[in-house]
């Protein structure tokens, strides 16, 4: 455990961005201590927002799962890639070909899916296969101005039976074969982080991102001027602590430890304030 | 058509390396003029060798197909990735996990496939899917010293119903997710080209490679000191002529045109020799 007070607390923390998978829950199981941690934050009136790259389930389903697990959160507290993407598609008059889990198709109601002029990839689990990937490849090489969206670019995530490859791996293959560089909708894209920060009503330097992905939660947030904290839950691997480039502002056992240590640091500060 | 005599004929051509798919045949159909071209080369006693990244079929099957189409070639004239890989596996005491078309498994007779300490990927068509790719990913991240072989790193090839993604796309995804850089067995690896040149008994600068892959046939050969000629058959796309980095020593309609123009150039030279 490395809780670098000096670095993390160099300035006040006014709000948090919390990853969902690996921080609040693993599959349908709450991460140890996270229910208590979120309740503590809520009882303190401490602002936070949930920010996820999850594209296997609609936002409403993720909210339902979280509520079922005991988290009192609602959709307005959450940021997911698909609604964000829909805004882009509408604004830029784009008609997507979708490589997504079929349960996500209903989320695209109102979007023209005929005669596609872009390709959208999200995590698709067993729907990633030779034919579906080839279809994306062929559509892209036939487009005059090919546009490829990837909902996140994560390398892997923690599945029920171990780590599994995420959309990033499949997207990199399509990028390689087509020569088309994907536009990322989700972490670590700057506009995605900054949207969440704006919704909270704070400046990037006032916000701390807490996630289990050293590169795209922690590194991505740091790139945007936030502080980034790595939890040792979810897909965390010991080698993450030795990442050659990304140095988290803190590494904690889990979200609960972060919240406890933050409160302790605040108490100490207050005591120092009283004694000064 | 761009047949840059000056560049291509700056020094004598003593032997040829010929790609199979896209140059001699597309699927089970001979490329127009190639049967005649190969017969002409054979009747001239002009040395050539077939060099392919094909891993969907055993060498013996490829030879049978070529013979059925009318090419009088035998296995000694051909270089395929799998036999080359087998030499490496034996030499380095490696036990592969195979992501290949199942019809290739018999080619690994005599190779220990238990408790794998490396992963081998080749074109697998519909056997590229979520579970098979995830299996490679999981085996690699569990290895202390992960080794990944890719049989070629091609982006796409011409299938019966259009262009299809090749092993390179899937390999790049695995590389991205695992952080392991693949060792390429096949074109454009230097040792693969130089093996073929050595078997011909010439120096790289005396040999011309003829292929339909601008990057891995033409560019790869040029990197090894050979000259590289692009045919406009197989997976050739008009954009290949505008490749920002790779400039073929010649671009020809097909193999037959190359052979005819080569013979014409030789005749002209001889005539010039006579008149001088």
UniProtKB/TrEMBL annotation, chains A, B:
Any single Pfam family the record assigns to this protein: Hydrolase_like
Reactions catalysed according to its record: diphosphate + H2O = 2 phosphate + H(+)
Protein name: Phospholysine phosphohistidine inorganic pyrophosphate phosphatase
GO cellular component, one term: nucleus
Top-rank taxon, per record: Eukaryota
Key words of the record: Cytoplasm, Hydrolase, Magnesium, Metal-binding, Nucleus
InterPro entries (alphabetical): HAD-like_sf, HAD-SF_hydro_IA, HAD-SF_hydro_IIA, HAD_sf, LHPP/HDHD2
């Amino acid at each position: 455990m490395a809780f670098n007070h000096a670095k993390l607390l160099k300035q006040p923390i006014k709000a948090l961005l919390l990853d969902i998978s690996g921080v609040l829950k693993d599959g349908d199981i709450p991460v140890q201590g996270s229910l208590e941690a979120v309740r503590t934050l809520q009882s303190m009136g401490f602002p936070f927002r949930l920010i996820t790259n999850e594209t296997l389930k609609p936002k409403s389903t993720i909210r339902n799962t979280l509520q079922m697990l005991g988290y009192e959160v609602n959709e307005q507290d959450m940021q997911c890639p698909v609604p964000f993407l829909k805004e882009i598609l509408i604004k830029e008059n784009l008609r997507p070909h979708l490589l997504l889990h079929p349960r996500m198709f209903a989320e695209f109601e109102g979007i023209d899916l005929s005669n596609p002029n872009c390709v959208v990839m999200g995590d698709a689990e067993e729907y990633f296969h030779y034919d579906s990937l080839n279809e994306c490849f062929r559509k892209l090489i036939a487009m005059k101005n090919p546009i490829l969206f990837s909902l996140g670019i994560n390398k892997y995530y923690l599945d029920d039976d171990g780590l599994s490859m995420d959309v990033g791996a499949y997207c990199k293959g399509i990028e390689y074969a087509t020569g088309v560089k994907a536009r990322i909708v989700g972490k670590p894209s700057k506009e995605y982080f900054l949207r969440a920060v704006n919704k909270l009503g704070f400046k990037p330097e006032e916000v701390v991102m807490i996630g289990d992905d050293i590169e795209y939660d922690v590194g991505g947030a740091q790139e945007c001027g936030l502080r980034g904290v790595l939890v040792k839950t979810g897909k965390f691997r010991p080698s993450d602590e030795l990442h050659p480039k990304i140095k988290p502002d803190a590494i904690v056992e889990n979200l609960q430890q972060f919240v406890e240590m933050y409160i302790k640091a605040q108490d100490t500060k207050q005591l120092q304030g009283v004694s000064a």
